[in-house]
Amino acid sequence: MSYKKAKGIYQEVITGIKNDGLYKDERTICSPQGAEVKVRFPADAPEKEMIVLCSNNYLGLSSHPDIMKAAHDGIERRGFGMSSVRFICGTQDIHRELEMKVSKFLGTEDTILFGSCFDANGALFEGILGPEDAIYSDKLVHASLIDGMRLCKAQRFIYEHSDMKELEEKLQNSQARLKLIITDGVFSMDGDMGKLDEICALAEKYEAMVAVDDSHATGFIGKTGRGTHEHFNVMDKVDIITTTFGKALGGATGGCVSGKKEIIELLKQRGRPYLFSNALPPAVVAASLKVFDILSESTARRDKLEELTSFWRNGLTEAGFDLKAGNTPIVPIMLYDAKLAQQFSRDLYQEGVFAVGFFYPVVPKGQARIRTQISAGLEKTHLERALAATIRVGKKHGILGLNKEQIIAKFANN
Length: 414
Ligand SMILES: Cc1ncc(COP(=O)(O)O)c(C=O)c1O
Hints:
Layout (H helix, E strand, L loop, with lengths): L1 H18 L8 E2 L6 E5 L7 E5 L12 H14 L7 H5 L2 H14 L3 E5 L2 H12 L5 E5 L4 H8 L4 E5 L4 H9 L6 E6 L11 H10 L3 E5 L14 H4 L8 E5 L10 E5 L1 H10 L1 H4 L6 H16 L2 H20 L10 E7 L1 H13 L2 E2 L2 E2 L9 E6 L6 H17 L7 H7 L4
Parallel strand pairs: 3-12, 5-6, 5-7, 7-8, 8-9
Antiparallel strand pairs: 1-2, 2-3, 4-10, 9-10, 11-14, 13-14
Helix pairs in contact: 2-12, 4-12, 5-6, 5-10, 13-15
The structure holds pyridoxal-5'-phosphate.
């Protein structure tokens, strides 16, 4: 009986989401992740070969044979599961080995692994800050950072996206014991970078710590792919980096906080998702070790990614699409209208291009888009085909050459 009332309410909410054009339909992939995949959409439709332009497989490592082999070997050598959190009986030699390897790659003092970066961000603030401390956050940081801050009793000050003047004003007026500035390294919805050089300069001036979530940067941003701290030449000034193994670094699962020794030590004592959630499985740890070996050997993959990204961004710009400015592999095509974004994605699907529409609540209302993402697993020929298809769809909707106001006006009654 008790569910009856709730059922009616939930069904009404779901209908509302559908009527607003905000319902998210999942495409079913029936092959390994890669440059091309086989997709069924709807789920009972026949399989269709698609070029993937919306995965976080930035370095094309998700189905790399050496990494898959390392995962198999990991199972052989250390078993399938840990059946324990780290501090009870869930720490193997390879967990510690991976923590040291990550620290070396990022140029930090130490690292603590988590089941995901969502967990890492959930653990971070509460573990190291109290009510007498303050966090200064960019308005557009990732949802997991927002949730992490909510779990912590420190005061929270939000500055408008990348507004360094507002950040400085907030830091100036602070009486807090400890201050921590938090930003995304690369903002995942817009593809722009946090102004880490300016943030570090302000941090020095006002004696604040700097934390950056480099989930969309580790492995490929910066000359040798270390991340945004390398790109901005502030490797020695960033105190804390959080990042994920679930995107460029093989794309399975796992995340970490990397940084100052005492911070990592404290998080191992206090981080709730560390103390109360299972250790990473050996297959993931062993495969992640291999990922860092591959990245340390050569920059070929991040170099190729940079080249392909320029080709894609230039092609779309020349065709007259309205893009978010940026210089990362995240290239959002702005459509503003949620229903248009859904239809655009369906049309791309018909053309053999897999790129989904992003709309509220993933981005603010009126900011709908197709977020394209480039991967080093793609070849230029994939992008040539995808570009021709995207232009055909852009022409169909009559948006080529239109600016933001013109697109909004055109679809006002959509
Ligand atoms: C900036 C950022 N931080 C953290 C996460 C969470 O990463 P994970 O998938 O490892 O939980 C994501 C994933 O979407 C992200 O984009």
